[in-house]
C-alpha cells in the first residue's frame, strides 16, 4: 500500500479518508510519473531522509513539500494584520521553511527551482537598483555557499517604528514577487533573504537596519529599563551617514519604499482582495522604481503553476474578512466613536 | 480530600454553565483565561473583550447537603481597554492573557491580570456597610447649611446591600516589547514574574516604574531568531527558582541567586526526539504551550500539541510520564497546519493532590489522566449533557476504520470548538472548563 511519503502526511477533513489520504487529485501525480520515480513503501520509515534521488523523484513527496513551502510563505506574509503578528507562530513557520529549504538544497531541487524561475523571467526588464543590490550576491551563490538560513525579516515588523512597519509591509510584496518569475538575482534582493541567497552587502544593510530598528524600538518604549540598547534619537536618515557605500543601495531600496507608500500602510491581506485590480503592484520592479511597468505574472499565478494543485493554501484568505472588521475596529478607535 | 481515586473513579457531573447560549458568539465574549484563587472560593475568568468576571462559591444549602454550593457572579469589571500604539500603527489587544490570584492577606482579594503589554493589580473588596448621620451632609449628599446645625451626632454604620468593588491598585506598563504570555506570583508573595516572547521580567508588587530583566533570549540579529519563550512559572515553594519553556520543546529551570541575568540555566529539560517520527511538523508540535509546577514542587508538567508530559525536576533527560491527548491528530498535521490549529495553545492543570492532570482538546473535549492508575477519560463540555447533576458520559474518538456506536470519527471533530483553558479547584474535585464563550463547572459526585 502506498502511504503518504515519509513525514508529510496530507489529508483533508471533509472527504472520507481514502487509503492514500492525500489532498492531490490523481491526475496530478500522473504528470510527474514520467521521471520514473519509485513509490516509497509504507514500511519505509527512513528517518533522516530517503535517499536524495528517491526523495526528489518521488512526486507526491516533493509536491507535498512544495505545497507546504508555499503555504508557509503565504502564512508568513498574511500575518501582517492590524494587530501585531504572533511572534511564536512566525518563528515556527519560518523554521519550517528553513527546514524545507535545507532539505531541498540537499536534494538539489532548490537549485532546480531557482533555475526554473530564472528561465521563466523576461530578461529585458532588469533594473539598475536590483543589479546594484545583487552584484555581490551572484558571487556568493556561485561560490557554492549554502543559502543563508531562512530568516524572517517580518519578525521585526510589529516591533518597530512606523516607518519600519511600512518597510515591513512592502517587504511582503517583495517576497511575493520572489515567487513570481524573477531571476535569482532579483529574488535575492528580497528582504526575506532565506531561500534566495543573500550576499554580504545585503547582510550588512540588514544588520544595520536591524540595529537601527532595534535602537528605535528601544526608544519607543517609555521607561523600558530592561532595554540595554542605546536610544537613538535621530531617525533613520541620520544613521545612514554611518553606512558604508555598498549599503547605500539598501538605503535606496528602503528609501523608495518609504516614499512610495502613504499611510496607512497597505495591508497585504487586503491587497489580495484587490489583486485583480492592479497586479503590477506586486511587481518587484514597480515597487523598487515606483513606476508602473508591464504587468507580469502575479505571485499567486506562479504558485498555481509551481504546485499544480492550485491555490488550496489560499483558504487562509478567509482571514481577509476579519482583517476588514479589524480595520473598522481600528477606525472606530481612532475616530473615538 | 474526598474522592481521591483515579480518573475513572471520579464521577463528574454537570454543575453549572455560564455564558450566552446563542450560536452567534461575539468575539469579545470568548474566554481567554480561567483561574481559581488559593482557597477555591473565587473563580476568575478573563475574556477577549478585556473583562474579568469573578464567581464566588456560595455555601451549601442546608436543604441539599449532598451538593456542593454553586458559583455565582461576584464581580465584573473591565480590566483592560484596547489601545493603539501610534508609533507602530498597531493595535494592542485588550484580551486578558492571564489572571493570577495573590494569596489573601486581609479582607480584600487581589489579582493580577495582563494583556499583551500591561499588567494590572486589582483589588476586589466588599462593602456592606455605609455610614449614616453625617453632620455636614444630608442623607442624599447635599451639604447642610452650617448655620442650621444645632447639634452634633455621631455617624452610625448601617448595613447595606453588598457591593463588590474592583479598583486598579497598580499598573505595570511599558516593560514588554513583545507579547506577554505568562505571569506568575512568587512564593514570597512580594514579587512576580512576567514573560513575553523573548524576555522575562521580575517585578515587586509595590513598584511599578521598574522591573528586573532576568531572562533575555533576543538575539543581536533578529534574523537569527529561531526560538521564543512560550510560558514561565515560579516554583511554588522556592522563591529563587523559576522555569520557562520554549517553542523548541525545551524547559529551562533557573536560579535567581546564580546571576542577575539568568541566561544560563541551572537545569535544561529536553526529551530527545524520536527519529522515526520526524516530520516537517516535528518542531511545531513539540512547542510547549504551557508549563505548570505540581503543588508539591517536585514535578512539573508541560503541554505540547499532542501530549502532556510530567517531569521530575531531578531528571533532565526525559519526562517521567507522557500522556497522549489526541494522538489521532498526528496524521492530520498538515491540515491542522493549514488552518492554523496546530498553533493552538492548550493549557494544563494539576488537581489539588497532584494525583491527576487535566487538559483540553477539540470538539469541546477535555481529557483527564490519573497518574496513579494510568487511566484516562475524555469528557465533553456541551449543552446537551448539561442537565443538572447529570453524570458526564465518557467520549471516545474512533481512530480505526470501524466506528463504534457513540464514537465520533476524527473527521467529524469540530476544530473550532477548542478547550484551551481549564482549571481545577485547589482542594475539591471541582473543575472549570472554558468552551469558547461558555464556562462549564463540573463537580465530582460526593458519595
SSE layout:
The complex is a heterodimer of chains A (337) and B (447).
Chain A (H helix, E strand, L loop, with lengths): L25 H7 L19 H6 L1 H20 L8 H21 L1 H12 L7 H15 L19 H18 L4 H4 L12 H21 L15 H5 L7 H13 L7 H6 L10 H6 L9 H8 L12 H17 L2
Helix pairs in contact in A: 3-4, 7-14
Chain B lengths: L11 E7 L12 E6 L5 E6 L3 E7 L13 E8 L4 E3 L4 E3 L5 E4 L7 E6 L4 E14 L23 E17 L7 E6 L5 E6 L2 E6 L7 E5 L12 E6 L6 E6 L4 E5 L11 E3 L12 H5 L3 E4 L5 E5 L3 E6 L8 E4 L8 H6 L9 E3 L5 E5 L4 E6 L5 E5 L16 E2 L9 E2 L11 E4 L5 E6 L2 E7 L3
Parallel strand pairs in B: 28-29
Antiparallel strand pairs in B: 1-32, 2-3, 3-4, 4-5, 6-7, 8-9, 9-10, 10-11, 12-13, 13-14, 14-15, 16-17, 17-18, 18-19, 20-21, 21-22, 22-23, 24-25, 25-26, 26-27, 30-31, 31-32
Keywords (chain B): Repeat, WD repeat
Protein name (chain B): Serine/threonine-protein phosphatase 2A 55 kDa regulatory subunit B
InterPro entries (chain B): PP2A_PR55, PP2A_PR55_CS, WD40/YVTN_repeat-like_dom_sf, WD40_repeat_dom_sf, WD40_rpt
Low-confidence stretches of chain B: 1-7
Query: Roughly what percent helix of chain A?
Result: 40-55%
Query: Secondary-structure element sequence of chain A?
Result: HHHHHHHHHHHHHHH
Indicate the structural class of chain A.
Answer: mainly alpha
Major beta sheet summary of chain B: 4 strands, antiparallel
Give the tally of β-strands of chain A.
0
Average predicted confidence as pLDDT of chain A: 50
| Radius of gyration of chain B, CA atoms, in whole angstroms | 24 Å
The DSSP helix count of chain B reads: 2
CATH top level class name of chain B: Mainly Beta
The secondary-structure class of chain B comes to mainly beta
Q: Biggest protein-protein interface?
A: A-B, 73 and 59 residues
Average residue pLDDT of chain B: 92
* Principal-axis shape of chain A: globular
Total number of beta strands of chain B: 32
| Assembly level | heterodimer
Helix content range of chain B: under 10%
Biggest sheet statistics of chain A: none
GO molecular function (chain B): protein phosphatase regulator activity
Organism (chain B): Gasterosteus aculeatus aculeatus
Protein name (chain B): Serine/threonine-protein phosphatase 2A 55 kDa regulatory subunit B
GO cellular component, one term (chain B): protein phosphatase type 2A complex
Amino acid at each position: 500500500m502506498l502511504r503518504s511519503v515519509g513525514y508529510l502526511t496530507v489529508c483533508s477533513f471533509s472527504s472520507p479518508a481514502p487509503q492514500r489520504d492525500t489532498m492531490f487529485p490523481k491526475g496530478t501525480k500522473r504528470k510527474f510519473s514520467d521521471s520514473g520515480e519509485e513509490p516509497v513503501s509504507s514500511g519505509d520509515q527512513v528517518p533522516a531522509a530517503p535517499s536524495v534521488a528517491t526523495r526528489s523523484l518521488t512526486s507526491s513527496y516533493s509536491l507535498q513539500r512544495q505545497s507546504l513551502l508555499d503555504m508557509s510563505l503565504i502564512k508568513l506574509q498574511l500575518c501582517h494584520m492590524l494587530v501585531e503578528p504572533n511572534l511564536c507562530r512566525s518563528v515556527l513557520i519560518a523554521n519550517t521553511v528553513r527546514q524545507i529549504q535545507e532539505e531541498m538544497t540537499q536534494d538539489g531541487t532548490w537549485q532546480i527551482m531557482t533555475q526554473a524561475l530564472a528561465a521563466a523571467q523576461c530578461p529585458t526588464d532588469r533594473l539598475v537598483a536590483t543589479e546594484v543590490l545583487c552584484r555581490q550576491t551572484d558571487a556568493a551563490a556561485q561560490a557554492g555557499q549554502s543559502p543563508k538560513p531562512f530568516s524572517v525579516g517580518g519578525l521585526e515588523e510589529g516591533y518597530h517604528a512606523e516607518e519600519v512597519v511600512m518597510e515591513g509591509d512592502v517587504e511582503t510584496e517583495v517576497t511575493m514577487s520572489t515567487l513570481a518569475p524573477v531571476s535569482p538575482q532579483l529574488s535575492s534582493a528580497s528582504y526575506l533573504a532565506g531561500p534566495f541567497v543573500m550576499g554580504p552587502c545585503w547582510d550588512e544593510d540588514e544588520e544595520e537596519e536591524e540595529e537601527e530598528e532595534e535602537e528605535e524600538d528601544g526608544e519607543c518604549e517609555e521607561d523600558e529599563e530592561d532595554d540595554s540598547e542605546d536610544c537613538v534619537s535621530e531617525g533613520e536618515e541620520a544613521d545612514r551617514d554611518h553606512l558604508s557605500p555598498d549599503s547605500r543601495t539598501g538605503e535606496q531600496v528602503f528609501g523608495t519604499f518609504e516614499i512610495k507608500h502613504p499611510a496607512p500602510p497597505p495591508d497585504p491581506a487586503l491587497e489580495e482582495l484587490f489583486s485583480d485590480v492592479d497586479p503590477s503592484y506586486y511587481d518587484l520592479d514597480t515597487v523598487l522604481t515606483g513606476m508602473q511597468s508591464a504587468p507580469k505574472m502575479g505571485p499567486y499565478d506562479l504558485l498555481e503553476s509551481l504546485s499544480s494543485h492550485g491555490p488550496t493554501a489560499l483558504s487562509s484568505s478567509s482571514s481577509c474578512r476579519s482583517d476588514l472588521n479589524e480595520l473598522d475596529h481600528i477606525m472606530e478607535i481612532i475616530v473615538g466613536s | 480530600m474526598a474522592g481521591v481515586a483515579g480518573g475513572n473513579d471520579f464521577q463528574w457531573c454537570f454543575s453549572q454553565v455560564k455564558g450566552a447560549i446563542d450560536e452567534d458568539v461575539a468575539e469579545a465574549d470568548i474566554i481567554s483565561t480561567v483561574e481559581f484563587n488559593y482557597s477555591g472560593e473565587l473563580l476568575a475568568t478573563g475574556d477577549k473583550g478585556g473583562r474579568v468576571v469573578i464567581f464566588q462559591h456560595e455555601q451549601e444549602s442546608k436543604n441539599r447537603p449532598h451538593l456542593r454550593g454553586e458559583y455565582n457572579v461576584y464581580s465584573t469589571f473591565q480590566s483592560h481597554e484596547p489601545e493603539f500604539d501610534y508609533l507602530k500603527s498597531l493595535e494592542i489587544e485588550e484580551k486578558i492573557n492571564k489572571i493570577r490570584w495573590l494569596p489573601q492577606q486581609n479582607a480584600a482579594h487581589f489579582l493580577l491580570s495582563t494583556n499583551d503589554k500591561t499588567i494590572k493589580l486589582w483589588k476586589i473588596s466588599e462593602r456592606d456597610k455605609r455610614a449614616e448621620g453625617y453632620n455636614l451632609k444630608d442623607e442624599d449628599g447635599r451639604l447642610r447649611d452650617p448655620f442650621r446645625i444645632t447639634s452634633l451626632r455621631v455617624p452610625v454604620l448601617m448595613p447595606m446591600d453588598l457591593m463588590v468593588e474592583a479598583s486598579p491598585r497598580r499598573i505595570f506598563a511599558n516593560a514588554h516589547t513583545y507579547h506577554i504570555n505568562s505571569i506568575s506570583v512568587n512564593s514570597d508573595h512580594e514579587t512576580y514574574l512576567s514573560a513575553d516572547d523573548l524576555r522575562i521580567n521580575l517585578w515587586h508588587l509595590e513598584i511599578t516604574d521598574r522591573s528586573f530583566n532576568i531572562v533575555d533570549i533576543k538575539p543581536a540579529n533578529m534574523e537569527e531568531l529561531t526560538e521564543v519563550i512560550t510560558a514561565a512559572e515560579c516554583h511554588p515553594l522556592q522563591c529563587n527558582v523559576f522555569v520557562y519553556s520554549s517553542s523548541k520543546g525545551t524547559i529551562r529551570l533557573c536560579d535567581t541567586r546564580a546571576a542577575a541575568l539568568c541566561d544560563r540555566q541551572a537545569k535544561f529539560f529536553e526529551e530527545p526526539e524520536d527519529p522515526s517520527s520526524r516530520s516537517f511538523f516535528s518542531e511545531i508540535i513539540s512547542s510547549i504551550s504551557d508549563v505548570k509546577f505540581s503543588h508539591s514542587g517536585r514535578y512539573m508538567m508541560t503541554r505540547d500539541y499532542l501530549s502532556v508530559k510530567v517531569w521530575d525536576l531531578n531528571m533532565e533527560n526525559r519526562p517521567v510520564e507522557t500522556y497522549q491527548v489526541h494522538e489521532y491528530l498526528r496524521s492530520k498535521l498538515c491540515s491542522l497546519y493549514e488552518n492554523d490549529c496546530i498553533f493552538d495553545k492548550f493549557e494544563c492543570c494539576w488537581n489539588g493532590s497532584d494525583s491527576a492532570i487535566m487538559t483540553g482538546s477539540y470538539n469541546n473535549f477535555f481529557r483527564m489522566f490519573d497518574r496513579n492508575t494510568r487511566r484516562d477519560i475524555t469528557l465533553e463540555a456541551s449543552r446537551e449533557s448539561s442537565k443538572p447533576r447529570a453524570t458526564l458520559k465518557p467520549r471516545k474518538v474512533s481512530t480505526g476504520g470501524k466506528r463504534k456506536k457513540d464514537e465520533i470519527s476524527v473527521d467529524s471533530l469540530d476544530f473550532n470548538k477548542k478547550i484551551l483553558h481549564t482549571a481545577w479547584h485547589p482542594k475539591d474535585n471541582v473543575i472549570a472548563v472554558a468552551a469558547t464563550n461558555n464556562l462549564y463547572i463540573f463537580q465530582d459526585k460526593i458519595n
